[in-house]
Design goal:
disordered N terminus, extended, mainly alpha, 5 helices
C-alpha cells in the first residue's frame, strides 16, 4: 500500500504540474508564450520532448512558438558553430585529430562553464526578485490586517 500511495502522490504531482503548465501556456499572451517556449528550449533536453509537450497543450500559437524556438536555439547554434569552425581551423592548420578534439572540448567546456555561471546569476537574480516581491506582499498584508 505504501508503494501505491507513493506512486499516487507522484502521479498527482505530475498531474498538478501538467495542469499548471497547460494553464500557463494556454492562457498566456503571445509574448509570455514565446518567453516560456524560449526557456524550455534553453534547458538541455531533446527538442522532441518539448515539441510533443507543446503539441499536447494545443493552445500554443505559431508565431510565439517560432520566436521562442528561435531565441532558445540561438545560444546552442552559436556554440556548436563556433566549436566546428575552431575545429576546422585546427584541421586546416595540420593539427592531429586528437589535438583538435581535445582543443574543441576545452573550448566547449569553457563556454559551458560561462553559460552555467550566467544561468546561475540569472537564477539568483530571479529568486531575489521573487523573494523581495513576496516579502513586500507579506508586509502589505500585515499592514492591512493591523
Amino acid at each position: 500500500e505504501a508503494d501505491e500511495t507513493a506512486g499516487g502522490d507522484a502521479e498527482n504531482a505530475f498531474a498538478r504540474k501538467w495542469a499548471e503548465l497547460r494553464a500557463n501556456l494556454a492562457d498566456a499572451p503571445p509574448t509570455r508564450q514565446a518567453t516560456l517556449i524560449a526557456l524550455y528550449r534553453l534547458t538541455p533536453h531533446p527538442f522532441s520532448a518539448s515539441n510533443y509537450l507543446f503539441g499536447l497543450v494545443g493552445e500554443v500559437r505559431l508565431a510565439p512558438y517560432f520566436v521562442g524556438t528561435l531565441v532558445g536555439a540561438i545560444p546552442y547554434a552559436i556554440l556548436y558553430a563556433g566549436a566546428g569552425a575552431y575545429g576546422r581551423t585546427l584541421l586546416d592548420g595540420g593539427e592531429a585529430l586528437e589535438t583538435v578534439f581535445a582543443d574543441v572540448r576545452a573550448v566547449v567546456e569553457s563556454d559551458l562553464e560561462i553559460g552555467e555561471e550566467g544561468a546561475l546569476a540569472v537564477g539568483a537574480a530571479t529568486a531575489a526578485a521573487y523573494l523581495a516581491r513576496r516579502l513586500a506582499r507579506r508586509r502589505d498584508d500585515v499592514r492591512d490586517s493591523a
